[in-house]
Structures are given as C-alpha cells and as structure tokens.
Amino acid sequence: MTTMNLSNTKLPTPYSSSEARLIQAAKDLVPMVREYAREADRSRRIPEAVIAAMREAGLLKAMRPVEAGGSSISFAAFIEIVRHLSRGDASTGWVAAFLISHEWLLSRLNAQAQAEVFSDGEGLAAAAAAPPGSAERVEGGYRVSGRWRFASAILHSKWVVVSAGSPETGPLAVIARIDEGTIHDTWHVPGMRATGSNDFELCDAFIPEHRVVDFIRYSSRENDGAALYPSYHVLQYPMYRVLSLIHGAVAVGTAEAALEMYPAAMTHRMRPASRQLLVEEPGTWSAFGEATQQLQIAQLLLDEAVSRTEHLYRRGSDEPALEERARLNLCVTASGTEALKAVDILLQNAGASIQRDGHPLELICRNTQVMRNHAVLDWRYAQMLAGRALLGQGLGPHADAMY
C-alpha cells in the first residue's frame, strides 16, 4: 500500500508567479526534509544541508521586501510554505517559519539597523519576548541584561530580537548579535527537539541605539519598515496578531503527513487474536475516515484564519473591532487543535508498534506531544478570552496588542 497525499485539498489561491515558485520549492523539499528528519531529531538541530537547500530555493528571504533583496510574498503564501515544509518534518517547518518570518521582523526596523543586520545579505534571526529583560540608557545606546526562553531557530541565527525595558523607557525591542550574548542549552524535550528552542542571555551588553526600538511601535502597523517599504503591505500587519498562525500551519502540515504515512504504516499490521490485517477491519476504515474529516476541518479553519487576517489588515483598513479579532483568534487556535485531533485518532488506532524508534509515525507522535502544550494552542484559554470579548466584557488583563 502506498502513502496518500491529502495536502492538496485547499482551493486555488491567486498567487503571483514568484509566490507559486516558492510554494512549489517548499513542496519539492518535502522528501529531503523527511529524509533528514531523524538526523535532525538526534542532533537536536536542523542539518545544514536542509538550511542550505531552503536558502538556495529562496525561501529564507521570501518575506523581505523586493527592494531589500527579498520576494515580498503574501501572508497566505508564507503560511502555505510553512505548511508544506511541516509535511516533511514539524521541527523543520517550525524553524523555517521563524527564519522566514523573522526576516520580516528585521525588515520592520529603521534603515540604519537594517543596513547592519542585512550587511552580508542574510539576516537570520531568532526572537524571544519572555521574560522581558532590563535596559539602561547610556551614551550611544543601552546596557541590556536578561535571559529569554524558547528562542526557536537560534542555533541557525546570527541575530536575536528580545524584549526589554525600564520605567523610564517603557517596553523596547532589542536586536542583539548572537555573539553579544550566550545561548544556554536548555531545550531537552521528547519532541520538536530540532527546533533548538534554547534560552538566550545578555549580561550588561552594550547595544547601539539604532538597534533598540520602541516595542509598541515596532510591533504595530506604523513601524519604521512599513514607511521605508510602502509597496510591501505585509509589513503593516501587527506583529503579535499574525505570527500565531504559524502554529496552525505547522500542526496542519504535520497532520497531513500523518495521514499520508498511515496507510503504508498499517499495511502489514495484524491483530494477533484474529490473524486479520487491521487495514481490512471496519474500525480502521472508520478511524481513517474520521481523521480525514478532522484534517479537512483543520485545513478549512487555517484557510479561514489566513483569509480573515488578510481582510482585517488589508491596505487602508481601520483597526479591526475586538469581536473580529476574537473570531480570528478562535480560527487560529482551532486550526491547530483540530489538526492534532486528526493525528490522535490515527495514533490511537495504530497500536503500540508506532512507539518504536524508526517507525514512520513515532516522530510525529513525539512532536505533537510537545506542540499541543504551546500557549497558542491552549484552546480553553482561547475560548474563554474570545467568549469574554464577544460578550462585550473586554480582554481584562490580557494585553490588547497581543490579541
């Protein structure tokens, strides 16, 4: 029995020729990414061959403005690229999502900062916001200290964007070189091991003034880069309100991979008591049908989240109402949680053998175990907050800029 391709269910989107080329490049990389997935998991980082292949395909600069050497792709095209790379491996899709979108983050900076971070042609960056560090104003810049958690993709980065501040300055975004601080090897987990989501620390590091920017402005629609490159409207998207879609894209891509691999993985599995192949049992048919339906729900929710995002933050649009953002956030969280439900249905039906090292579904099992605990996929909190907003009760202590 061959594997099945269940990833091409979404309706055609009018991508530009350059976007279509990059999406196809991501699809073409899926076999290579799967081939290297075990090595990535063992070494706890994405192999350089995979990073080089993404670079060669032009994926890493996809969200940089054309005028700055990128491709100025739409948000929909970005999510599609991440989804396909995640079909190859969840950790690789995750790291790629951040390396690609963080070029977009760096493109939101002032011209002097961009000249420095892109000086060698590529501004690979990690980002970590919590807990915020401290910043002291000094001549020519700031002295910054702090230790930030979960800096995904930092093992492949030259730069890191962190948050800091003081009562005098308010919240700041700090762009530091990796060699200005220390990476702490803290990411010891059962799944998503290759994301390298370690801690990063700065100890009284001097950061020049042009690499320290007002965090609220930087994360808003009125950031410096949006003024520098008005033709690339995606730079006007509010940072924290859109990057959460990455989680749904990785989860959906991972679920697509699970459904693709499941038929071949079940070909020779036999129930000992009956000597019947499980693939011939009605219960297996039902489970696969249910998982397929669950995946379609997740795909539709992800598409809806992307459509809502592009509509709410279209050029010239007003600030969207809280109720509209609540519905968008429900789509974002549900796209991921519904995709993980599809995976769970298959894993529960596949038997204990999938836990063996090397089984096609074993790595997916461990990766989804870790993915489901990310704050963006906390459906209880997401539903509570959306319900509160939709009932006219506001967000309470939840930061408006992060919703």
Automatic annotation (TrEMBL):
GO terms for biological process: fatty acid beta-oxidation using acyl-CoA dehydrogenase. SUPFAM superfamilies: Acyl-CoA dehydrogenase C-terminal domain-like, Acyl-CoA dehydrogenase NM domain-like. GO terms for cellular component: cytoplasm. It comes from the Bacteria. Residues 33-96 form the Acyl-CoA dehydrogenase/oxidase N-terminal domain. Keywords: Oxidoreductase. Pfam families: Acyl-CoA_dh_2, Acyl-CoA_dh_N. GO terms for molecular function: acyl-CoA dehydrogenase activity; flavin adenine dinucleotide binding; oxidoreductase activity, acting on paired donors, with incorporation or reduction of molecular oxygen, reduced flavin or flavoprotein as one donor, and incorporation of one atom of oxygen. Residues 245-378 form the Acyl-CoA dehydrogenase C-terminal domain. InterPro entries: Acyl-CoA_dehydrogenase, Acyl-CoA_DH_C, Acyl-CoA_Oxase/DH_mid-dom_sf, AcylCo_DH-like_C, AcylCoA_DH/ox_N, AcylCoA_DH/ox_N_sf, AcylCoA_DH/oxidase_NM_dom_sf. The keyword Electron transport does not apply. Belongs to the HpaH/HsaA monooxygenase family. This is Acyl-CoA dehydrogenase.
